[in-house]
Amino acid sequence: MLSALGDLLHGILDLPFVLINLLVAILNGLIAALAAIASAALSLLPGFPSPPSAPGGVVGALLWVFPLGTVLSFFGLMVACWVTFLGVKVALKWFRVL
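Now predict its structure.
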């Protein structure tokens, strides 16, 4: 009789841990479902094109020493950031924030 009451007491004391494990399992399932949805959405996107091959000879050696593609992409990024800054600055001046 006492062992049955002890088992009942241990069952009652373990109930919070069982509920926490249930919540963790539900959270893990939710994360796995979001990962599956993201994976399905990414699989719908087209693949990346292959990069063009570098020319050979003197031009290829020059591009190996001075990476023109990287320099131009960085310059484009800086111009885009500058134009965005000017646009935000104008919008904030219109609203008299600055």
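The two ends are 79 Å apart (CA to CA).
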